[in-house]
Design goal:
By secondary structure, the protein is an alpha+beta fold. It has one domain: Transferase(Phosphotransferase) domain 1 (Transferase(Phosphotransferase), domain 1, Orthogonal Bundle). It has 5 helices and 6 strands. The strands form 3 sheets. The chain has a two-stranded antiparallel sheet. Strand 2 and strand 3 form a beta hairpin. Helix 3 packs across helix 5. It is globular.
Length: about 150
């Protein structure tokens, strides 16, 4: 599963002290030469050192900025990354980003997701795109979610 590999890759970057800050489809390469596609995260041009501090400068794609950047002018690494993973998944499922403007990011509810997407996938997506940073799941718990564990 592509999202599973992206989460593992991002966690690997974090464990090495790197914060990517621009997780999006254009920054993923999918190797298709083997039976199982392998995902590679590329373009660390917006990256910085990963720490538990509060960041006040955002470098990344505007359409992937989490709400706290707009409302507080600051963010923490893990909740921001979880938000970007949610935007990535939404874009992979629908072909477009969930929010177009800062006002939408702050105020608009997550657009309806097609009914043919599994309940666990929808749950994972909604958790990642929770507006409150502290309401999002911790990075280290993402791989424990039933959807990433293969339950539909």
């Amino acid at each position: 599963m592509i999202v599973h590999q992206v989460v593992e890759g991002v966690q690997g970057l974090h464990s090495r002290g790197v914060l990517h800050r621009d997780i999006k489809p254009e920054n993923l390469l999918v190797e298709t030469g083997s039976d199982t596609p392998r995902v590679r995260i590329i373009d660390l041009g917006c990256g910085c050192l990963h720490n538990n501090e509060v960041y006040s400068e955002f470098n990344g794609t505007d359409l992937h900025i989490p709400p706290e950047v707009y409302t507080k002018g600051a963010y923490r690494a893990d909740p921001m990354t979880v938000w970007q993973l949610g935007v990535l998944l939404y874009e992979m499922l629908t072909g477009h980003v969930p929010f177009q403007t800062s006002a939408e990011v702050i105020f608009k509810k997550l657009p309806r997701i097609e009914s043919d997407i599994s309940t666990n996938c929808k749950d994972f997506l909604k958790r990642c795109l929770t507006k409150r940073a502290l309401g999002r799941p911790p990075m280290q718990s993402l791989l424990l979610h039933p959807w990433l564990r293969g339950a539909d």
